[in-house]
From TrEMBL:
Gene3D superfamilies: 2.60.120.200. Pfam families: DUF1349. InterPro entries: ConA-like_dom_sf, DUF1349, UCP022704. Keywords: Plasmid. This is DUF1349 domain-containing protein. It comes from the Bacteria.
Length: 194
């Protein structure tokens, strides 16, 4: 089911955003981020997140477009229970390049990066949550979906899922989100990349 971005609820609403039939376009505020403790010692819960409620057993996917150029520029999907249990996944700019990034947080944050493909100014991200397992995939074309991460994630009565964007080192990143859908959890085999 395709989602109307105007039906979401903001956590840390950006000053500049627009949702219409073409999608959601936002520009990040200054020094926004989601992180908890690990390595850096700080906790940040200031990133932009447009939340849509859902229960267990769902697949959400979204198309992300932007020019990611500054350290830690990031955009993608978030799944959130509360401020201590969440996941953000999508593009993140680090070490001079754009990577596909996942931060799984259950009390403390755990960060991983991958580059199954490098064309990250226009890509899709998919998250499936079912039976305590989180499956994250990414795609350049919406047809072939390499696996990024398979991780445990806490069971809850309800979750929130939706687009997220952060710029810990600056402001002014403009991101366009489109083709956002939430539906029943896909049940394909882990190695079926369709």
């Amino acid at each position: 089911m395709n989602i109307d971005f105007n039906d979401g609820k903001w956590l840390n609403e950006p000053a500049d955003w627009l949702a219409n039939e073409a999608g959601l376009t936002l520009t990040t505020d200054e020094k926004t981020d989601f992180w908890r403790e690990t390595h850096y010692g700080f906790t940040r819960d200031s990133g932009h997140f447009l939340a849509f409620p859902t229960g267990d057993g769902f697949t959400a996917q979204i198309r992300v477009q932007g020019e990611f150029r500054t350290l830690y520029d990031q955009a993608g999907l978030m799944v959130r229970i509360d401020e201590t249990r969440w996941v953000k996944t999508g593009v993140e700019f680090t070490d001079g390049e754009a990577f596909l990034s996942t931060v799984v947080t259950d009390g403390k944050s755990d960060w991983s990066v991958a580059q199954p493909f490098k064309e990250l100014e226009d890509f899709r991200i998919r998250v499936t949550l079912a039976n305590g397992a989180l499956r994250i995939q990414a795609s350049r074309d919406g047809s072939f979906w390499p696996l990024l991460r398979l991780a445990p994630f806490p069971a809850a009565d309800h979750y929130e899922v939706g687009p997220t964007a952060c710029t810990p080192e600056r402001s002014g990143l403009t991101v366009r989100f489109s083709e956002f859908s939430i539906g029943p959890a896909i049940t394909r085999d882990l190695h079926d990349l369709s």
